[in-house]
Amino acid sequence: MGEESFGLRLRRLRKAHGETQPELAKLLGLSRSAVSMYESGEREPKYELLTAIAAHYDVDLDYLLGRDRPESAEGEDPDIRLIARAGRKMTPAQRENLLRYARFMFPEAFEDDDA
């Protein structure tokens, strides 16, 4: 299997996270047409945009550039992706409260946790 392009990986990540081109464009401060051009390979992203996309989708730059596969983008449970996406939108205090609640409700899931 050959290496996938940045555009193809961006499109797959966007769709896997249930986002439209206009939604991603707004999150990144771009136009919808710019997202379309990145996905089609008509335009190459600068480093700052690559790092913003990697942070948004929680993947590394090597994956975005077609060098390896992400652990989170393929084969992951959709519910886990949804929880992770919601967590990125929460404040640190909200995440701390959610984690405290999860540890209380599901202690067995955190038995191997060192924290």
Structure description:
By secondary structure, the chain is mainly alpha-helical. The chain folds into 2 domains: 6-64, lambda repressor-like DNA-binding domains (434 Repressor (Amino-terminal Domain), Orthogonal Bundle); 78-110. The chain contains 7 helices and no strands. The chain has helices at residues 6-16, 21-28, 32-40, 47-57, 61-64, 78-89, 92-105. The radius of gyration is 16 Å and the shape is elongated. The mean pLDDT is 84.
CATH overall fold name of the largest domain: 434 Repressor (Amino-terminal Domain)
- Write down the domain tally: 2
Per CATH, the architecture of the largest domain is Orthogonal Bundle
Our estimate of the beta-strand percent is under 5%
Series of H and E elements: HHHHHHH
- Binned, the helix content reads 55-70%
From the N-terminal CA to the C-terminal CA, the straight-line distance is: 40 Å
Query: How much is the radius of gyration in Å?
Result: 16 Å
**Structure annotation, total helices:** 7
Structural class: mainly alpha
Identify the overall geometry: elongated
List the main descriptive attributes of the protein structure presented here.
115 residues, mainly alpha, 434 Repressor (Amino-terminal Domain), 60% helix, 0% strand
Summarize the structure.
With 115 residues, the chain is an all-alpha fold.
Walk me through the topology.
Blueprint lengths: L5 H11 L4 H8 L3 H9 L6 H11 L3 H4 L13 H12 L2 H14 L10
Helix pairs in contact: 1-3, 2-3
